[in-house]
Design a protein that fits this description.
The complex is a heterotrimer. Chain B is α/β, with parallel strands linked by helices. Chain B has helices spanning 45-52, 82-85, 104-111, 113-119, 124-127, 131-150, 166-178, 196-212, 224-230, 248-252, 255-262, 266-276; strands spanning 5-16, 19-30, 34-38, 60-66, 72-74, 89-91, 184-188, 216-220, 233-238, 241-246. In chain B, the strands form 2 sheets. Chain B has a 6-stranded mixed β-sheet with strand order 6-7-8-3-9-10, with helices on both faces. Classes of the chains: A mainly alpha, B alpha/beta, C mainly alpha.
Chain lengths: 441, 277, 305
């Protein structure tokens, strides 16, 4: 291979400048048309109720200029980075260092997570954020069973989260059952709902299944909103009991944990307890999933994702296999829901919208379908990133949406692009995600 | 029909809308023998396979599978995965259908799903890591290893199936089918895309399966060298009907078969043959 | 009976709006095989642009309602079509040959972007407009005093739907573009080899889908007299439901599905409960799919083994 002559490089650069300019100009023009009415004009109901409008040409000009500038920057970056799809040769020593880092990251992350309440004991905000991230890690791991392993696209996962949350909330407020009795019940009820939905619809393929699960999620939410006598409707359920440490309440009273241990009461105790509770639940989910992957049922899920026809030819009952995946994922969703209810003390249908399902699905896909570590990292990145933009209140979802688009373009197969085999003869070799299918169901 | 038939297909017909893919087809596959189903492209061979293995429900006709112990199963009454699970009929596909993102070993483990499901106590025993499950799993790995050795892939056991060369994938698919411990093995063009050396080793493998496991084999094949070398019985189809059957020698000399392949009418084919001899 | 007739009219009008949105879903699905989650929001944008251009035209002193409507329709279709084009270009094209879930997630992200963009640009409050097309006809006056009415708005909505549908069917069945679209639907690689500009064809699919969604948005504005930034999601899901119900990929199916969803929703509200109308629509979707897994007019998927 000879290096191309220097002249042609310069020529292409000169061409590049004109090209970039032209492209940016077109982008700016498109932006001008797109934003002309939506940003250039602002409508609002006036004092008499009639709509009035005023123009905002300054904002419009600023937006168009931003697009123009942004387009140039993007083009320059793209030229500098090289064409999309270029395979970058990574030196072997860097590669092995990366592999080492990858192996080390999970234990380090786990130890750090265990220490979070110790390190950040005084910072309630960090603890709350940690609990939130762990809740999504758990939801991500739960959905990962359905989407990542079995390859079934579930757009209504939040339904099971809602079933779990309302199961605990209603059982606890109406019958006074304790959290530790309700937790398994919530999981079982969610799994039952999973089976009930799954049984008729799991023979649907691909996007039909996706839309039915989405519809199911909406149905559950709408029923919760409208069945006011049971669920309190849009007002939700309040006064949900806080969890006890196996019967010992975390309250300042004489029978509280602090009094029993003879230490001073602090409201942080409860937060720390909740932190370790969700950590335990998440780790349980992880342990069960890893274990299941090495059992015939887990292998059948993955085989189903790879090739359903071949599964049938090998005598695998695809319907029950899908159902178990659905029920297992739903059960974990139910656990997470029960935890959510006890942590919040108040739940309402607003917490169980499609956006929630989309967020959890984004975590699973961004994590690299099927990868437990990837899902955890993605949850951390997504929820953490989401928190960073808390100050921007109304721009938050906008940024979140843009991030989702960009992340998908950047890494369509997610952060961790390898599949670890579940069994090996000589040595375990990671399988490139290019070979791994993502299912049709 | 005479002889000990493991599979008896009787008056099988399959229609797709107005198209008759298989018309009133009857044949048998003998126990512990290799039966070949041949015919020009579009003759309906794969459709017959899909009926036998439960992917299609035949429009009419019966297919009876008789096990060694005399237990008879009507295949047209079973569907889907039950053909493999209960009737013990395994198959491979014309356009290889492995699990490309799983290793060769994992592919063979998936094939033992039903046995392993029982051993894992429907997952619960496996989840707690019961000793009975551990030994069953080890047994399954050993069986998989045996088959990987038989097809010469033991060195590549831990590689992704999708990464294997074409010929290896073909053999792996046969090994996977054999891991279901079938009574009847149905192979859809196992030699397609193989070179002469690979074809020869395939023939050897099939003969050793017949001799070793005593598995009856039904295969669709275009590679006449394989068909002639290993088949005990050949059934020839054209346009959905059986036009001839017999030993490889008989079929090869049948003018109707030659006509079907050469696309000429019968008299011409006879003329061609006579001029050849 | 009169009550039923009135509900039938209302249901068909609502169904026309759903049908127009559903066509966009079905076309995109047919050609690139993805659920364009942002399509509901494109419909919402169409409604907003119709509203804003209407306000501007009125404030310029234009009084001839038909002329205003025509200009609003054209402006809304043009700008919304550009939105459709841009969304495809930014969020979907880079993922064209990627894994199945990536474009879907990208589409969900794009849907969030569009929803929040409108909210930020135009505020969160519902935008009401006074009835633009007034009057109507009394079809039948029952003995009980119940009057079956057909308003002019309803007539406009139905006629606009029929005209655009006819135009569009002609486009797909008779023009070069339509042929290219059908070719890409069958086999993109082969179409490209035969000289079809696949990128352009896919772009045009999004453009046409968005233009029809803009019409739906404008009809919604005329019929309900309001728009808001959040209306895209629910309308989008229902229109997608309609597309699936009709058999995704089938254009007549999308329209049929739209009418079916419109009727179910209206009838359920009229005879049972308004609160559970969406539950009814979604439940019927699930029930239909259980018995007809590829929808009403969808071609059954022949499994290649």
């Amino acid at each position: 291979m000879n290096a191309p002559p220097a002249v042609s490089i310069q020529a292409s650069h000169a061409l590049g400048a004109a090209f970039i300019f032209k492209k940016a100009l077109i982008s700016a023009l498109v932006a001008l048309v797109l934003f002309s009415l939506m940003i250039g004009v602002r409508t609002e109901a006036g004092p008499t109720g009639q709509l009035i409008y005023w123009t905002r040409f300054g904002d419009l000009a600023a937006m168009v200029a931003t697009v123009f500038g942004g387009s140039i920057v993007v083009e320059l970056l793209r030229q500098w980075w090289g064409p999309v799809g270029t395979i970058r040769v990574v030196p072997t020593n860097v590669k092995s260092a990366l592999a080492l880092a990858r192996r080390g990251i999970a234990p380090v992350l786990l130890i750090f997570t265990f220490l979070v309440p110790v390190i950040f004991y005084d910072q309630r905000y960090i603890l709350d954020l940690g609990i939130l991230v762990l809740t999504y890690v758990m939801l991500g791991w739960g959905l990962n069973v359905v989407v990542g392993l079995a390859g079934l696209l579930d757009l209504g996962y939040v339904a099971f989260y809602a079933v779990g949350a309302y199961s605990y909330a209603l059982l606890a407020t109406n019958f006074g059952l304790s959290f530790w009795i309700c937790l398994p019940l919530a999981g079982i009820l969610a799994a039952l709902w999973g089976v009930m939905l799954g049984f008729p619809v799991l023979r649907l393929r691909g996007d039909y299944l996706a839309i039915v699960t989405l519809a199911f999620g909406e149905i559950i939410r709408l029923v919760i909103i409208n069945w006011q006598s049971l669920t309190g409707g849009p007002n939700g359920v309040s006064g949900i009991p806080r969890p006890t440490m196996f019967g010992i309440p975390l309250t300042p009273g004489d029978d509280g944990l602090a009094a029993k241990l003879g230490i001073e009461f602090s409201p942080t105790h409860r937060i720390v307890f909740l932190f370790y509770l969700i950590l335990a639940l998440a780790l349980l989910t992880n342990w069960v999933t890893i274990r299941l992957r090495r059992l015939p049922i887990g292998r059948a899920w993955e085989a189903l994702r790879e090739d359903e026809v071949a599964c049938r030819a090998l005598g695998i009952n695809t319907t029950t296999t899908k159902l178990t995946a659905f029920a297992t994922g739903a059960m974990f969703g139910g656990f997470a829901g029960a935890f959510f209810a006890t942590r919040q003390g108040f739940i309402s249908p607003e917490s169980f919208t499609f956006q929630e399902s989309a967020l959890v699905l984004a975590i699973v896909v961004l994590g690299g379908m099927g990868s437990q570590l990837g899902v955890a990292l993605a949850a951390l990145a997504m929820i953490g990133g989401f928190e960073l933009f808390r100050g921007l209140e109304q721009y938050r979802m906008l940024v979140f949406g843009i991030a989702m688009v960009l992340l998908m373009i950047w890494r369509p197969r997610g952060l961790i692009g390898h599949r670890a085999p579940t069994v090996f003869l000589e040595r375990s070799q990671a399988i490139s995600s290019d070979l791994v299918k993502e299912g049709h169901g | 029909m005479s002889g000990d038939h493991i599979l008896s297909v009787d008056r099988l017909s399959m229609r797709f809308g107005g198209i008759v893919a298989v018309n009133d087809l009857s044949f048998g596959a003998e126990r512990r023998k290799i039966t070949a189903l041949i015919g020009p492209n579009g003759a309906g061979k794969t459709t017959v396979f899909n009926c036998i293995t439960g992917f299609y429900k035949p429009t009419s006709g019966t297919m009876q599978l008789t096990h060694d112990d005399g237990r008879a199963i009507r295949l047209e009454r079973l569907n889907d995965f039950r053909i493999s699970k209960q009737a013990k009929v395994a198959r491979t596909f014309q356009n290889i259908r492995l699990f490309p993102g799983m290793t060769a070993l994992e592919n063979l483990m998936v094939a033992q799903h039903n046995a392993l499901m029982r051993a894992s106590g429907l997952t619960f025993l496996g989840l707690i890591g019961a000793p009975s499950w551990r030994s069953a799993e080890q047994h399954a790995i050993d069986l998989a290893r045996t088959w990987l050795e038989r097809v010469g892939l033991v060195d590549r056991a831990d590689e992704a199936a999708g990464n294997l060369p074409y010929g290896d994938q073909r053999r792996l698919e046969i090994a996977r089918a054999m891991c279901t411990e079938p009574a009847l093995l149905c192979l859809d063009e196992p030699a397609a895309g193989l070179n002469a050396r690979e074809s020869a080793s395939l023939s050897e493998l099939l003969l050793s399966i017949r001799a070793g496991q005593g598995t009856s084999i039904l295969l669709i094949e275009h590679d006449m060298s394989v068909v002639m070398e290993i088949s005990d019985h050949v059934v020839v189809m054209d346009y959905g009907v059986k036009i001839a059957e017999g030993t490889p020698q008989q079929v090869r000399d049948d003018p109707k078969v030659i006509a079907a392949y050469l696309g000429t009418d019968e008299e011409e084919a006879i003329a061609v043959m006579e001029s050849g001899t | 009976m009169d009550y039923f007739a009135q509900q039938l009219i209302n249901g068909l009008v609502l169904g026309s709006v759903y049908g127009l949105i559903a066509i966009g879903y079905t076309m995109v699905y047919g050609i690139v095989g993805m659920i364009n989650f942002a399509h509901g929001d494109i419909f919402m944008i169409g409604g907003f642009i119709a509203l804003i251009s209407f306000l501007i035209l009125v404030s310029f002193g234009l009084t001839a309602i038909p002329l205003i409507l025509l200009i609003v329709l054209l402006v809304s279709m043009a700008i919304t079509a550009l939105y459709g084009w841009t969304v495809e270009r930014i969020a979907y094209r880079p993922l064209r040959h990627s894994f199945r879930l990536a474009p879907m997630l990208s589409a969900i992200g794009m849907s969030f972007v569009l929803t929040n963009y409108s909210q930020i640009a135009q505020g969160a409050r519902v935008k009401p407009v006074p009835p633009i097309i007034r009057g109507g006809y009394t079809l039948h006056e029952g003995a009980s005093g119940f009057v079956v009415q057909l308003s002019n708005v309803q007539i406009v909505v139905v006629i606009a739907t029929i005209v655009l549908l006819a135009l569009f069917t002609w486009l797909v069945a008779r023009t070069r573009l339509g042929r290219d679209m059908r070719a890409c639907e069958q086999d993109q690689t082969m179409a490209a080899l035969l000289g079809v500009d696949v990128d352009r064809t896919i772009s045009m699919t999004f453009v046409i889908g968005a233009a029809l969604a803009a019409v739906a948005g404008m009809m919604y504005l005329l019929y309900y007299g309001q728009v808001d930034f959040n209306m895209g999601f629910v309308a989008g899901i229902k229109a997608f439901t309609a597309a699936v119900l009709g058999g995704i990929g089938s254009l007549p199916g999308a329209m049929l599905g739209g009418l079916a969803i419109g009727l179910i929703e209206t009838m359920w509200s009229a005879y049972f409960s308004v609160e559970y109308k969406d539950v009814a629509a979604f439940s019927i979707l699930i029930i239909v799919l259980i018995f007809l897994p590829t929808g009403l007019l969808g071609r059954p998927e022949v499994e290649k083994v």
